[in-house]
Amino acid sequence: MLGAVASFSAMAVAGREISAELNTFELMFYRSVIGFFIVLGLLSLSPKGLGQVRTKRFGQHIQRNVFHFAGQNLWFYGVAVIPFSQLVALEFTNPIWVAVLAPFFLGERMTAVRVLAAVMGFIGVLIVARPGVAPFELGHAAGLLAALGFAINTLYTKTISRTDTVLCVLFWMTLLQSLFGLVLSLPGGIPWPSPAMWIWVCTVGVCGLTAHLSLTSALSLAPATIVAPMEFARLPVVTGLGMWLYAEGFEWQVLLGAVVIILGNLVNITFEQRRQKALA
Questions:
Q1: CA–CA gap between residue 237 and residue 247 (Å, rounded)
Q2: Beta partners for residue 54, in sequence order
Q3: pTM (2 decimals)?
Q4: Alpha carbon of 1 to those of 140, 211, 213: distances in Å?
Q5: Per residue of the chain (280 residues), what is the pLDDT tens digit?
Q6: CB 1 within 8 A of CB 231
Q7: What's the burial of 246, exposed, middle or buried (CB within 10 Å: 0-12/13-18/19+)?
């Protein structure tokens, strides 16, 4: 989880730096191409080799990556235009979206606890964004929609991972999103990053994979009730980076809203853990 927190935080800084030269489609193109070649290297070292990229769920891989690509573009846009702390606080609604959408995607039962978590998440969003008091900007909308895109991506991943390996998922993710980024970047031409910018582009390409691998490994080694609270440590980390590198101010409303969203997540996670133990 420390690896995941470090990877996501590095991606936030790199994404803001890259926004000076590349738009989000161009950034996603370079990120995905770099990631694709890294995944090919990992596949060559894996005992199962390239054979594991065969899949009977190709349609679901496409659908998953459409939502993930959209969410990631919106996240990189938010990184560039609103404070890190606000974006990450809004991003923490991701697990609540998963809980609300799971009955529709996975056939799971909607419970009162899931509704409570969703209400707490909504209240937290209102505290962070403060509509009517502070201007609700496109960056805030991007952060919320990114969280929704990531949530749908999580639900597709949960289904796909029943039969496909992590490297299979990463292979199709980097390949498909390379194509998405290429098609959407071509109309305006794809600029070649300046020499100073390549370090940030490579940071995004590498950290996009290390974040995914770290989070997946953490969930395989420890219960979600332990893993999820550690992910919330990303808020003070990125807030500190924003204050240090970009002179972003500290807003207690963002902290309060994030706490409410986090509590909503923990309520849902704790209930789900108890329910699974009862079923076992």
A1: 14
A2: none
A3: 0.89
A4: 26, 9, 10
A5: 899 999 999 999 999 999 999 999 999 999 999 999 999 999 999 988 999 999 999 999 999 999 999 999 999 999 999 999 999 999 888 888 888 888 888 787 888 888 898 899 889 888 887 765 667 789 999 999 999 999 999 889 888 988 998 899 999 999 999 999 999 999 988 999 999 999 999 999 999 889 888 887 887 777 666 677 777 888 889 999 999 999 998 888 888 988 998 888 888 888 877 877 777 6
A6: yes
A7: exposed
